[in-house]
Amino acid sequence: MPCEARDPATFALLDRVGVVEGMHVLEAGAGTGSVTAWLAERLGADGRVMSTDIDLVLHAEMPPNVILRQHDITSDRLPAEHFDVVHARAVIQHLSDPAAVLGRLYRALKPGGAMVIEHDAREQGRDLNAGAPVLGWMRDLAMEDLEVVSTTEPIEPAGEWIVTVGRKPAAGTATGAGI
Ligand SMILES: C[S@@+](CC[C@H](N)C(=O)[O-])C[C@H]1O[C@@H](n2cnc3c(N)ncnc32)[C@H](O)[C@@H]1O
Question: Going by CATH, does the domain composed of 3-167 fall within 3.40.50.150?
Answer without folding.
Answer: yes
